[in-house]
Design a protein that fits this description.
With 350 residues, the protein is mostly helical. The chain contains 14 helices and seven strands. It folds into three domains: 40 residues, no CATH class; 96 residues, no CATH class; 167 residues, Intergrase catalytic core (hpI Integrase, Chain A), CATH 1.10.443.10. Helix 3 packs across helix 5 and helix 6 packs across helix 10. The longest helix is centred in the middle third of the chain and has 21 residues. The N and C termini lie far apart (89 Å).
């Protein structure tokens, strides 16, 4: 430690291994000096808890594995994007203005399909991706505070997020039916199950015969952990629901499989298999519509995603409370704003 002419104290760290060794400057940062000392001594280098990358590593190891499989996959990709951007940064380096810059400058990446073609040209604004990544960054920072890595306030707190416009596409019946008829039996079962149950694709393909308990389809949503019992017979009328009829048809087939969705050979339908079948059915349905001279239908068919089954279910149920309950939402507002894609029914003035 030295006292400068200005009166301020200057602290520097040096490595000294004996008379025959020249002093090696280690800098003025204690944490960095310790790392350099450990390297020179040939000792294991302890993780620098002042660095964001240490928090990223611990979050990846200890927190992400506890999440739903789909969320794990998304978080891992988001974490790597954050790691690349904030490489080498310490907690004290990151301010709210830096996160705002990240939010405003986040662009899409070039992605290659399996056939080698480019999915998108890259360089387009990615406001939704930025929001998700900043939400993850905020969570990492909060955990880092709990772990004792930093006591600094979370710079993401109060940060304005990008506006998000919910997808407003509604799969009309002619579109839904055209795609439905263009696919094989297991795909049609998947379309029926997704629409009638109102569940996400991952939960649809996970549905098993073991989930048929007490005349209901038991669902534990992979994303939220929410548990539902979807009736196979209407409790009030005693009439079999359309979902119940679908289950009956599937169970009546001479196929040995624990899964509700499977091929004619008994192979369980996986998410990739479902995606492939949907894309093939959509392409075939659009081509058929064009051949028949219906360009409008073809265009609407190409816009549909398999995930549009869930908002279609929410939109086709008149009662918003019933729709929200089926989707497993804790708030009707989510169902109304994100999943209801048609206007409410209203009576005319006269």
């Amino acid at each position: 430690m030295r006292k400068l002419a200005s009166g301020k104290e200057w602290v520097g760290y040096y490595y000294y291994a004996g008379k025959a060794t020249k002093e090696i400057a280690l800098g003025t940062d204690l944490a960095e000096a310790k790392r350099k000392w450990a390297e020179l001594e040939g000792k294991p280098v302890a993780a620098d808890i002042t660095k964001l990358e240490t928090a990223f590593d611990k979050y990846k190891r200890d927190i992400i594995p506890k999440k739903a499989p789909r969320t794990q996959k998304l978080n891992l990709a988001e974490l790597e994007t954050l790691r690349a951007y904030f490489k080498g940064a310490s907690f004290r380096d990151v301010k709210t203005k830096h996160l705002a810059l990240y939010r405003d400058s986040r662009k899409t990446k070039r992605r290659l399909r399996k056939d080698g073609t480019v999915r998108d040209p890259g360089g387009k604004p990615a406001p939704v991706a930025a929001n998700r990544e900043l939400a993850l960054f905020s969570d990492v920072w909060n955990f880092a505070r709990e772990w004792g890595f930093t006591d600094l306030a979370n710079p993401a707190r109060g940060l304005r997020r990008n506006d998000e416009t919910p997808r407003d596409y509604y799969a009309e019946d002619d579109v839904w039916q055209a795609i439905y008829e263009a696919g094989p039996q297991e795909f049609q079962d998947a379309m029926d199950l997704a629409y009638l149950s109102g569940q996400r694709p991952d939960d649809v393909v996970a549905s098993s015969r073991r989930d048929l308990v007490e005349d209901a389809l038991m669902v534990k949503q992979g994303k939220t952990g929410k548990k539902l019992r979807i009736e196979l017979t209407d409790a009030e009328t005693g009439i079999r629901t359309e979902l119940g009829k679908l289950v009956d048809r599937i169970k009546a087939r001479p196929v040995t499989s624990t899964k509700l969705l499977c091929t004619a050979a008994g192979k369980a339908l996986t998410r990739p298999m479902l995606r492939t079948r949907f894309e093939e059915a959509r392409a075939a349905a659009a081509a058929k519509a064009e051949v028949e001279g219906d360009a409008d239908l073809a265009a609407r068919i190409r816009r549909m995603w398999f995930t549009d089954n869930r908002p279609k279910a929410a939109s086709d149920i008149e009662d918003i409370k019933a729709a929200s309950k089926l989707l497993g939402h804790s708030e009707e507002d989510i169902t109304r704003k994100v999943y209801r894609r048609v206007g409410e029914r209203a009576k005319p003035t006269r």
